[in-house]
Design a protein that fits this description.
The protein is α+β, with helices and mostly antiparallel strands. The protein is built from 22 helices and 35 strands. The strands form 12 sheets. A 9-stranded antiparallel β-sheet has the order 1-6-7-8-9-14-11-19-22. Strands 5-4-10-13-12 form a 5-stranded antiparallel β-sheet, covered by helices on one side. A hairpin with a 5-residue loop joins strand 2 and strand 3. Helix 13 runs antiparallel to helix 14. The two termini are 56 Å apart. Mean pLDDT is 84; it is low at 1-10, 259-277, 458-534 and 924-956. Non-lysosomal glucosylceramidase that catalyzes the hydrolysis of glucosylceramide (GlcCer) to free glucose and ceramide.
């Protein structure tokens, strides 16, 4: 529960000196070891509150009873087929969600592992659509310090808290380790994709330790950003008068989360593949230099019957500070028994002189080259384009991560610097903007090397790489890499079972290097310092609506989140738009049951934008969402037209515009069926037929109607630029008539009513009422309405939906009655939607209301991210109620904070958009030069009307 002071105390700055002593910051002020000035911060001993999930009211439960019964039946039916329902409100996690999250590991689309701010590795999403929330407690960093010839020793796991069962005399598990860290003098600092943990004299008062976590999330870099790896750089500063021997230990369990480590038959040995099932291979590594000695323990167990127990391993490190060098030559371990766990360890030891400094680097990498979806199709992940499909890739990934992490950091700092140095921006906004990007890694992202299934491609497309040792080659860095590779959990996602696993050791000495082997005109090695992949073919990209709503690329939500991809990875954004453009022209006549009413319909209607790209067979079986028939939703088609035009205008990609133009026309034409009275304005049908899928709309809707107006204007502008003047004229005529009707039916003098019906909430103030205007202004098009109407509506939203909710410290409630009471018509009308709040703030920025915009968005930070808030950092939910109960953690829509950044830094193409109203411009006579360009582009558009070569089955 949020403390009362949260709504009265407005903190503008979170300087690192409040968390780390200034003297320690000065000692660490080299090699990026000190935490940044702008970051999200927590003390490691902070209380991790249990989060509270939402519940429906009695009246809402009555209304939803029939839906609930049908949903229960559907969930059970899917489970009987070995599948997971895309929405399962009855599922309860064994691990209760808590305020413990931190920056996740790795790049995009190759599986993710989150890491809590206290150091635990949790939220495993290696297998698509599967999230194991519980931490694997054996995965830890630990430190061992010896001074005064061994008379003064410290040994501790570098994470606070106590393990279950600690203190039992016969315990052979990890509770026998030294869980001594209080966390009182240790702090966590997050600025995605990096994080810093500072141990300010813990456990040794005379040793300052900085652990820097780095992942390769690098905008516009479509190669490194796909890599499943992360680096941990430890910086040690000895403030004592005597030298200290310091050993850092990295332990890792043979597990992909949940109970997978207990399934048995896990073996630590090289490169064993599971028959026809996607393998998962882990590698943990440390960088060996002239000053750092690396040793390994290939295998230890967590049970008393293990040959080497966790207690034995810990005792060895306490006594010696390292393992035996002979372990590099050890063979494969015996397979683990069911209920037992195999773990491995890498130790890096060094001497730190009095007042001296030392750096030790570790890496973790995982390789799961093939993605297999529930209904059988499999794909190769994006990173295999550069590393091949061998499970050995994890070893190479770890090696290259340790070699190249400094370059990654340089690129990350160059990207973030303009925002962090902008004195006009509030500090909370700077680091929240970057930290909300966690979702692109931890939100169940899949990035394939192509949209075609792996079985449909030739055998040579993913040829394994060749690596050669070259002792005689010149090596730029005089350091080797010691790698422990663990092939774990060959997991069959169709059956939900884990198969046999193995682990191996591999070592690169100080005089060896990795060099690429030339084959013809191509290199097949792993030179990550090479040029980026600049082709337009960036493969297939999927990301979940949320970890609780398992649907890929949910389009009504992508409408809000897409600004992040457009700004940072525009080729991925265009790729997603192409996927939906192809889908528009296709039809899937298979029957499906819609749970809200119990009626049946076809899965995908030609001309309608799909709600999502599917769940168990993405790209081929769309519309996994089955509560309502989304072919009757009124927002999806306008959102497609608006996103396409924004992307087209921002990128200036003429070929993209021509390719998707037939789909834009089809999407506009499809909407004619919803104009019931031929006034050119669409009407809603008295049920929740838009993204607010429990909030009923009657007649003309401010939300859907506004989107429709904006789509007509965008389609007219795009038609003009692509040479389709007839279509431009048609859209113009519709727009003029529809706008007149829209204003006459909804404008009440200060804002646009929720809808034109006569229900109790028809005059409600909807936060999202100007969503169409948001996209219009974002795309460089003239405003939909005059300035007074826009500013008056935004002022009403700010004064009522924002400031009347806990003084503006929670975000904007979706619906508010004009008497100042929250609209409690349904669950969603009374909720605060994080992504919608950011979108409203972006609209305010575009209207010149910057102060109101940042106050509005700050409510999401205060309630969700601040130290006094509800604890939703790095797991921002879809919504919360005014008492702080969440719905749907780790959700896509909050990425819309990048819509604010888009509004603050509009690209040149948008800023230089024509100032003349596009509708007036359609009537102007055109120069011969402009007419020539129109004609040539129109020919391109005509050539791509049929998209029969797509993965969809076109019905042209």
């Amino acid at each position: 529960m949020v403390g009362a002071n949260i709504f009265h105390c407005r903190k503008q700055s979170w300087p690192p000196e409040e968390y780390v002593s200034r003297a320690t910051l000065q000692l660490l002020d080299f090699d990026s070891a000190a935490p940044p000035e702008h970051a999200w911060r927590r003390r490691l001993n902070s209380h991790a509150t249990i989060l509270k999930e939402f519940s429906v009211t009695f009246m809402e439960a009555i209304k939803l009873m029939r839906l609930g019964i049908r949903m229960w039946s559907y969930v059970r039916e899917e489970a009987s087929q070995g599948r997971t329902a895309p929405i399962n409100p009855f599922k309860r996690e064994s691990c209760k969600p808590s305020a413990t999250q931190g920056v996740p590991l790795g790049g995009m689309g190759s599986g993710s592992i989150s890491r809590g701010f206290r150091g635990e590795f949790r939220h495993w999403q290696i297998i698509p659509s599967t999230c194991e929330a519980s931490p694997v407690m054996a995965n830890q960093f630990s430190i061992f310090i010896s001074r005064d010839e061994g008379n003064k020793k410290y040994a501790s796991v570098l994470a606070p808290g106590q393990h279950e069962g600690i203190g039992k005399s016969d315990d052979q598990g990890i509770s026998s380790w030294g869980w001594n860290l209080s966390g009182q003098h240790s702090t966590y600092h997050a600025l995605f994709p990096r994080a810093w943990t500072i141990y300010d004299g813990e456990p040794d008062p005379e040793l300052k330790v900085s652990c820097r976590q780095i992942s390769p999330f690098i905008p516009h870099n479509y190669r490194d950003s796909s890599l499943p790896t992360a680096v941990f750089v430890y910086t040690l500063v000895n403030t004592g008068k005597e030298r200290a021997k310091v050993s850092l230990l990295f332990t890792w369990a043979n597990s992909i989360g949940g109970i997978s480590h207990l399934s048995g038959d896990h073996v630590n040995e090289p490169f064993m593949t599971a028959k026809e099932n996607p393998p998962v291979t882990f590698a943990i590594a440390a960088c060996e230099t002239q000053n750092v000695n690396v040793t390994v323990l290939p295998c230890f167990g967590l049970s008393e019957g293990s040959c080497i127990t966790a207690k034995d391993m810990w005792g060895k490190m306490v006594q010696d500070g390292h393992f035996d060098r002979e372990n590099f030559d050890s063979g494969p371990s015996m397979p683990s028994l069911p209920g037992d766990t195999h773990c491995a360890a890498v130790s890096a030891s060094t001497w730190v002189e009095p007042h001296g400094k030392c750096t030790v680097a570790f890496a973790v990498a995982w390789s799961s080259p093939k993605i297999k979806f529930m209904k059988g199709k499999s794909y190769h992940r994006r990173y295999t384009k550069f590393y091949g499909t061998s499970e050995r890739a994890a070893l190479d990934l770890a090696h290259d991560a340790l070699t190249n992490y400094k370059r990654w950091e340089e690129e990350i700092e160059k990207w973030q610097a303009p925002v962090l140095r902008d004195d006009r921006l509030p500090e909370w906004y700077k680091f929240t903007l970057f930290n909300e990007l966690y979702f692109l890694v931890a939100g169940g992202t899949v990035w394939t090397d192509t949209a075609l299934p792996a079985a449909n491609r030739g055998s040579n497309q993913h040829e394994s790489t060749t690596v050669v040792k070259a002792p005689e080659a010149k090596v730029d860095q005089k350091q080797g890499v010691t790698i422990e590779q663990s092939t774990v959990n060959h997991y069959d996602s169709t059956a939900g079972s884990s198969l046999k696993d193995k682990t191996t050791l591999m070592r690169y000495g100080e005089n060896e290097s990795m060099i690429p082997q030339r084959r013809g005109n191509k290199y097949s090695g792993h030179d990550m310092l090479g040029t980026h992949d600049d082709s337009d073919d960036v493969g297939g990209f999927l990301y979940l609506e949320g970890v609780e709503y398992i649907m890929w690329c949910t389009y009504d939500v992508h409408f809000y989140a897409s600004y992040a991809l457009l700004m940072l990875f525009p080729k991925i954004e265009l790729s997603i738009q192409r996927d939906f453009a192809k889908a528009v022209l296709c039809e899937d006549r298979r029957k499906m049951k819609f749970l809200a009413e119990g009626n049946c319909g076809i899965r995908k209607v030609r001309g309608a934008i799909p709600h999502d790209l599917g769940t168990h067979d993405p790209w081929h079986e769309m519309n996994a969402y089955n509560i309502h028939d989304t072919s009757t939703w009124k927002d999806l088609n306008p959102k497609f037209v608006l996103q396409v035009y924004r992307d087209f205008a921002a990128t200036g990609d003429l070929s993209f515009g021509a390719e998707v133009w037939p789909s834009v026309c089809a999407a506009i034409e499809y909407m004619d069926r919803f104009d019931r009275d031929n006034d050119c304005l669409i009407e809603n049908d008295g049920f929740p037929d838009q993204t607010y899928d429990t909030w009923t709309v009657h007649g003309v809707s401010a939300y859907c109607g506004g989107l429709w107006l904006a789509a007509l204007q965008a389609a007219a502008a795009m038609a003009l630029q692509l040479g389709d003047r007839a279509f431009a004229e048609r859209c113009k005529g519709k727009f003029v008539n529809a706008k007149s009707v829209f204003e006459a039916k909804l404008w009440n003098g200060s804002y646009f009513n929720y809808d034109s019906g006569s229900s109790s909430n028809s005059k409600s103030i909807q936060t999202d009422q100007l969503s169409g205007q948001w996209y219009t202004a974002s795309s460089g098009l003239p405003n939909l309405f005059d300035d007074f109407k826009i500013e008056s509506s935004l002022r009403k939203i700010y004064d009522f939906n924002v400031m009347k909710v806990r003084g503006g410290r929670m975000g904007a409630v979706n619906g508010m009655h004009p008497n100042g009471k929250v609209d409690e018509t349904c669950m969603q009308s009374r909720e605060i939607w994080t992504g919608v709040t950011y979108a409203a703030a972006a609209t305010m920025i575009l209207a010149g209301m910057e102060e109101e915009a940042f106050t509005t968005a700050e409510g999401i930070f205060i309630a969700g991210w601040s130290e006094e808030g509800f604890g939703y950092s790095f797991q921002t939910p879809e919504a919360w109620t005014m008492d702080g109960h969440f719905r749907s953690l780790i959700y896509m829509r909050p990425l819309s904070i990048w819509g604010m950044q888009w509004a603050l830094s509009l690209p040149k193409a948008i800023l230089e958009a024509p100032k003349i109203n596009i509708m007036d411009r359609i009537h102007l006579s055109h120069s011969a030069k402009y007419f020539h360009n129109e004609t040539s582009v129109k020919k391109i558009a005509e050539k791509v009307k049929c998209l029969g070569d797509s993965v969809f089955h076109c019905t042209c």
